[in-house]
UniProtKB/TrEMBL annotation:
This is Immunoglobulin superfamily member 5. Pfam families: I-set (PF07679), Ig_3 (PF13927). The lineage of its organism: Eukaryota, Metazoa, Chordata, Craniata, Vertebrata. It comes from Malurus cyaneus samueli. GO terms for cellular component: bicellular tight junction; cell surface. Keywords: Signal. Residues 242-256 have a biased composition (Basic and acidic residues). Residues 1-24 form the signal peptide. Residues 242-261 are annotated as: Disordered. It comes from the Eukaryota.
Length: 323
């Protein structure tokens, strides 16, 4: 009976003593959260005080690596390795997860076989998928409104999409973003930008997630074609020129009128250059009869003076007035 009581009390005593012994060491600094891209490495540090014996790393509740003070690291897979550091009376174990996968997302825990605070962190594995704009160049005409579509496929989580033009941020009111679930826990996103270009420009679609050091981007070059406006301008110039020429021809016809073939310039009326009417010699009277009985008056007969400076063949002058 006494031996039976001892066999029962011994486990109880050991159980009571172990927590007391464990208080001799503790985790002084636990791991921190990490966000990484799929395919890269993730690193977590756990620092314990002197006197520790065993340190176990767990991923989502499953042990992946063990470190003992006597033998060092005990690695069971190439994807989970460690590096160890000692500083004073403290020991630090660094867990390295290689070639991270989306499925690795979850809780990472550092355990020293006793309750401890700050002994866990979270790993977030993100995936940057593809980003594309179908056309690398696009020609637009004056007053033409176009829609540019940027497509992000196979991302985790769904990316934030924004737009820029010639290094200037485009207002969010100019585009619409949509998200949809993809396969294998991935996400797709679609962004549609609507604008009416007034000049050639480069449009850039930007997709961003936390793990990316800088946003992923895709660009399209808009070529502004104003040849229609130039052609209209040239047509207007030609039209105006034609109208002016037409008006000029009409003025010339109005000024020319019909030719007056009977018109003689006034300067040609000079009497020195114009022919005169030839005066006839005076008639000699023949009188029959005795000369002695005839009394002849010596007073000559005066005739009215005629104007002789008219042209021999005067022509009629007709004036034409054009209305």
């Amino acid at each position: 009976m006494e031996s039976f009581q001892k066999s029962i009390l011994l486990p109880l005593i050991l159980t009571a003593l172990l927590p007391g012994l464990a208080f001799c060491y503790s985790i002084t600094k636990g791991p921190s959260n990490a966000t990484v891209l799929a395919g890269s490495e993730a690193r977590f540090n756990c620092t314990v005080s002197a006197g520790w014996k065993v340190l176990i790393w767990l991923s989502k509740g499953s042990p992946v690596l063990t470190v003992t003070s006597s033998q060092g690291s005990v690695e069971t897979t190439d994807r989970f390795t460690s590096r160890n550091y000692t500083s004073g009376d403290e020991f630090t174990s660094e867990l390295i997860i290689h070639n991270t996968q989306l499925s690795d997302t979850g809780r990472i825990e550092c355990s020293i076989q006793q309750p401890s605070e700050n002994n866990f962190a979270f790993l977030f594995v993100q995936v940057n998928g593809s980003l594309l704009i179908k056309n690398s160049t696009l020609t637009v005409k004056e007053n033409q409104t176009v829609e540019i579509v940027c497509e992000a496929l196979g991302w985790a989580p769904a990316p934030d999409i924004s737009w820029m033009t010639n290094d200037s941020v485009i207002d969010k009111s100019s585009y619409v973003n949509q998200q949809s679930p993809g396969s294998n826990g991935l996400h797709n996103a679609l962004s549609t930008l609507t604008l009416t270009p007034t000049d050639s420009e480069v449009l850039t679609c930007l997709a961003d997630i936390e793990a990316l050091p800088s946003p992923q981007n895709a660009s399209v070059t808009l070529i502004f074609d104003n040849s229609a406006a130039g052609s209209n301008y040239q047509n207007e110039i030609r039209k105006v020129s034609a109208e002016k020429k037409k008006d000029g021809d009409l003025d010339d016809r109005q000024r020319s009128g019909s030719e007056n073939l009977g018109y003689i310039p006034e300067e040609l009326w000079n009497t020195e250059q114009s022919p005169r009417l030839v005066s006839l010699p005076p008639k000699v009277s023949k009188i029959s009869g005795p000369v002695d009985n005839l009394h002849i008056s010596s007073v000559p007969k005066v005739r009215p003076q005629r104007r002789t400076d008219y042209p021999i063949s005067p022509k009629k002058i007709r004036n034409v007035t054009l209305v």
